[in-house]
Amino acid sequence: MDEGGCRVDINHGVLHIFDRQKKLLVRVKRTAGRLYQLQATVGKPACFALHSAEDTWLWHGQFGHLGFNNLRKLAREELVRGLPPLEPINKVCDACLAGKQRRASFPEQARRRATHVLDLVHGDLCDPITPATPSGNSRYMWIKLIAGKDDAASAIKNFQAAVEVESGRRLKVLHTYHGRESTSIEFGEYCANRGVQRQLTAPYSP
């Protein structure tokens, strides 16, 4: 109680304990053995309490959302002391449904699949990230660092020139998100003149 900020006063054989708001919590008289004995009952923490109208739901939560069949098996075979017989539950636990659901598998064959280098290139941008590099660029892309989104078109042009020289192939399809730097008239004319087909994702609407 002292470590919790309470004030302890002893005067004329009587011990007083006050909380931080100076409210009296304890008043204890000194015994014949010169001790101040306090009989206190520790309250049950509310954060560990689970309230439910049905015992099955209560034990389901206490055992970390164990399956109802396994929970009834514990009670039926008396594998846990004090666990009463539990009734079957036909409802679905929302927490289990959200925490144990499985993601659908990916298709074995994608709708669009590139067969050669530069047949399909995906590009994306992000907002500035801190801390910036010494030259003022954000540390997001490993291939090309840009100072702002206005430099995206120039970055794509430089990237295209470099990879086409290195691979000996031409860029066919460029897939980017629906940003203004990817939909500008100037960049559209650039792609059209070089035979690059543009694919744009649907615009994001929150």
Automatic annotation (TrEMBL):
One of its GO terms (molecular function) is nucleic acid binding. GO terms for biological process: DNA integration. Residues 103-206 form the Integrase catalytic domain. InterPro entries: GAG-pre-integrase_dom, Integrase_cat-core, Retrotran_Ty1/copia-like, RNaseH-like_sf, RNaseH_sf. PANTHER family: RNA-DIRECTED DNA POLYMERASE, TRANSPOSASE, PUTATIVE-RELATED. This is Integrase catalytic domain-containing protein. It comes from Paspalum notatum var. saurae.
